[in-house]
Amino acid sequence: MSKILIIDDSPTIIDLLRTVLTSGGHEVLTANDGVTGLNLAKEKRPDLIILDIMLPKMNGYEVCNLIKFDEKYKDIKILMLTAKAGAESKNIGYETGADEYMTKDLDPDKILQVVKKMLQDK
Predict the structure, then answer these.
(1) DSSP secondary structure letter of residue 72
(2) Does the domain spanning 3-116 belong to CATH 3.50.50.60?
(3) pLDDT (tens digit, 9 = 90+) per residue, 87-118?
(4) What whole-number distance in Å separates Cα of residue 33 and Cα of residue 102?
C-alpha cells in the first residue's frame, strides 16, 4: 500500500481525492496549507504528494521546490493538481520539481491512472 499526501486548501477536493485514493488501496494523509503539508511530508515521507498551487501560508511551487531540491526528500513523487491551466503555470511547476502536472478536472479514473503510473516509476 502506497502512502499519499494530499496538500489542498479545499475540503471538498480533499474528501473527493481521499475517497478515490482509499478505494484504490492507498493510505491517505492530508494537509490544508503549504507549511503543514511540507512538515508532514518531511515527517511521514509519503510515496507521492498531490499538491495544489494556490495554498495558504506557502504556495505549492515553494513546497515542491523545498522537497525536490533537498537530497533527503527528492525521491518523493509530486503530482501538481491545480486549477491553473496555463502553460506558464505548468512550466513553473516542472521547474520547481513536479513530476506530473494536471488540472483539476477531477476524473477519478484519470487520477488513479496517473497515480498508478507515478508510483510504478518509484
Answers:
(1) T
(2) no
(3) 898 999 999 999 999 988 778 888 889 999 99
(4) 19
